[in-house]
Amino acid sequence: MGAAFKLDKKNFNKQIEEYRQKNNCKYIEAILCLCELNQIEPESIGKLISKSIKEKVDFEGQQLNLRPKKNSLPL
What would the DSSP string read from start to end of 2-65? Predict the structure, then answer.
């Protein structure tokens, strides 16, 4: 992973997906690691993360009991 990358929504989301797949980790971990590697405050990247990744992070948070679980219909 390079030390820096262009900080735009498309590229950052691509970096998240690539990091997650390469390191076999959760989205939450991938985002935090990329922030640390690139010296970016995690609080500042909310607008850069796509809706789809935000939903996946929210789901992971629920599974890890970091976020309240949303009501869902049993399948």
Answer: -S----SHHHHHHHHHHHHHHHT--HHHHHHHHHHHTT--GGG-GGGS-HHHHHHHHHHHHHTT
- The Cα 69–Cα 61 span in angstroms is 9
Chain segment 22-31, per-residue pLDDT in tens = 999 999 999 9
* Residue ranges of domains in the chain: 9-63
Distance CA 66, CA 13 (A): 22
Q: How far is CA 16 from the centre of its chain?
A: 6
Query: What's the predicted TM-score (pTM) here?
Result: 0.79
